[in-house]
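Example record used in the benchmark description.
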Amino acid sequence: MVEQPTSTADCPRQHHWIKFPDLLRSSCCETTTTPLSPQADSVKTARDVTRATLNDWGYDALGDDAALVVSELVTNAVRYALRPPQASAGQITLMLVRVSRHVVLAVADPSDQVPVPKEPDFISENGRGLYIVETYSRDWGWDHLESGGKAVWALFTPEEAAR
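Model output (structure tokens):
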């Protein structure tokens, strides 16, 4: 069963340190931020940036899981960034944040549409993205952005990847 996403505004356990708008303004952590255009080849760029960043941070073991999750998040962002009325807004942002022993991977897009998980249909070619995000990350959720749009994030703990 796919669970509803966690809005960081509704989750005190994470709210104090995983709030995407605050992370954008903060210098408290090690971060990598990459702007992406709303096109299909941005998915590969996001995977490459994610793997390279995790490698630089010494978190190689997270590479496969994080690359799969970022693929799903960026694919969804591209899909929703191209829908009217967002079609002209366009920009997608990938952000990786290392906070203590955790890594937060976030993808911001111009759509205000909240991510809604569906029960996965394993025969269909789509509809499994958030199931994959939930399965491969420790936790996930979303935040509305003050400037409009939203950021969908996934939390990883490197020690769990080694198990």
